[in-house]
Specification:
The protein is mainly beta. Helix content is 5%, strand content 43%. The strands form 2 sheets. The chain has a 5-stranded mixed β-sheet with strand order 2-1-4-7-6. The longest helix is centred in the first third of the chain and has 7 residues.
């Protein structure tokens, strides 16, 4: 029996007002301003893991938790370490990206990746390094 394919929505919530006011490159802890929906608020954002199956789709997007004017745009996703689990991500609408999980990987294979985002109206690019893990 074939396993159903799933779409995983990975949504990054950002205190855009606080981040813009308190950002110091190389010194700012993004844990103070960012969190993924579904993440335990006490966990480090870089340990946030999306559990996927081969052939699944991952969609990344962002939203501001402190401003109705700001948007959080996902502008890039690159592999950092581990297996090369996903196809090259592509833009799907304003500030969103998605990718398919390659089918050749098996349970417990993982990839740590760089997720880049910008706050609308700024040229600053921020980076977080979460994880993808094959669970089935």
């Amino acid at each position: 029996m074939k396993k159903p394919k799933t779409t995983h929505e990975v949504i990054l919530e950002v205190d855009t007002v606080g981040l813009q006011a308190g950002y110091d490159p190389g010194k700012t802890d993004l844990n103070d301003f960012c969190q993924f929906i579904g993440q335990n608020p006490n966990d480090n954002i870089e340990l946030f893991t999306t559990y996927v199956g081969p052939g699944d789709t991952i969609t990344w997007s962002g939203k501001s938790t402190s401003s109705d004017v700001h948007t959080v745009d996902i502008v890039g996703i690159t592999r950092q370490t581990g297996k090369d689990l996903i196809d090259v991500p592509s833009a799907v609408g304003l500030g969103k990206m998605n990718s398919k999980v390659k089918k050749k990987y098996k349970k417990n294979d993982w990839e740590k990746y760089n997720l880049f985002f910008k706050i609308s109206g700024t040229g600053v690019k921020y980076e977080i390094d979460p994880i993808i893990n094959i669970y089935r």
